[in-house]
Design goal:
By secondary structure, this protein is of the alpha+beta class. The protein has 2 domains: 2-167, Beta Polymerase, domain 2 (2-Layer Sandwich); 202-314, no CATH class. Helix content is 56%, strand content 11%. It is built from 12 helices and 5 strands. The protein has a 5-stranded mixed beta sheet. The longest helix is centred in the middle third of the chain and has 34 residues, at 168-201. The termini are far apart.
Length: 315
């Protein structure tokens, strides 16, 4: 056993480089594709874990047969994003094995969906300086939702990694929990799709917006998509922007009228402000554009915000 561990320690720096390379690619492409993920985790198997696995299983050549010496996990929010992440893995790496853990379960068994890939770097990567010497090394990539991850973590904490390990009296409860988690995953996807459809169908260009139309986070996102799509916005700013708009007493219809009134003059204003500081255009974020509309159309808001800014400068 000590010989295997010594050999593993010798090649561990290579696996560390493999881990860094794969994690970097996953983070970069997920960001470029704007796929929301909760976390991208990675690790190398430690000596103790490797020893335990070698003892439990009969390997002839452990370091050649064990696929998860380098392991990565992508945890996303929605089930529908899993297929997009799987395509990234399949396009960017040489896929040696693929498996959906759910496929191995019968209808009456509990468990969770988790997509597992065993991958290696593509040949064209190996010529790059940071990937030289990594040929033949493999890594395991797991892809799951947050709820799948929660189920896995809790069931492992209970020491129930396999259904055969579960006392009979607990199986019914675990089956019900597994079904509820699966249903919750599906419902979160459904709610997300309903919200997207609502925003997409919320036509601000026609007469569908009237005095009864609600000013809320979804309608504000629709305003962004209709009038300010080129401007960056932070989801975390939406609640405060809503509060500021509502402080003026504007209805959704009236605020849209204000936006359309200000749009023709805003480019010149932004260009003048940009020239003063030599900042590139567009300079204003979505939040900045919304506050400019409020400044231009509400004296009360302008005076109050000016007072707040002066206080911040003094403090």
């Amino acid at each position: 056993m000590s010989g295997i561990i010594d050999e593993y320690r010798d090649i561990k720096p290579k696996f560390e480089r493999l881990r860094v390379n794969i994690e970097s690619v996953l983070k970069q492409i997920v960001s470029e594709r704007k796929i929301p993920v909760f976390a991208i985790e990675s690790r190398l198997k430690d000596d103790e874990s490797l020893s335990g696995k070698v003892v439990r299983k009969s390997y002839k050549s452990p370091l050649e047969e064990i696929d998860d010496l380098c392991g990565l996990r992508v945890i996303c929010y929605y089930q529908e994003d899993i297929s997009s992440i799987c395509k990234i893995v399949e396009n960017e790496f040489d896929v040696l094995q693929r498996e959906n853990k759910k496929d191995s379960l019968d209808d009456n068994q509990f468990g969770y969906s988790s997509y597992h890939y065993v991958v290696a770097l593509k040949k064209e990567w190996l010529a790059h300086p940071n990937a030289r010497g990594l040929e033949g090394l493999r890594a395991e990539i797991q892809i799951r939702t947050m709820l799948m991850h929660t189920w896995s973590a809790i069931s492992h904490k209970l020491l129930y990694k396999r259904e055969a390990d579960v006392p009979y009296q607990f199986k019914r409860q675990l089956n019900r929990l597994s079904a509820l988690i699966e249903l919750a995953d599906e419902q979160f996807d459904a709610i997300k799709n309903i919200k997207t459809q609502y925003i997409d169908s919320f036509s601000l260009a026609d007469k569908s917006v009237d005095d009864t139309s609600e000013l809320n986070s979804d309608s504000l996102v629709a305003i962004h998509q209709r009038y300010f799509k080129e401007r960056d916005y932070d989801d975390g700013e939406i609640p405060s922007l809503l509060e500021e708009i509502r402080s003026t007493g504007y209805s959704l219809k009236r605020f849209i009228e204000c936006v359309e009134l200000c749009l023709p003059i805003m480019p010149d204003m932004e260009e003048e402000e940009s020239a003063l500081g030599e900042d590139p255009l567009p300079m204003w974020t979505f939040a900045g554009a919304i506050r400019t509309v409020l400044d231009l159309t509400s004296d009360e808001y302008y005076n109050e915000r000016g007072g707040r800014i002066r206080k911040m400068i003094i403090l």
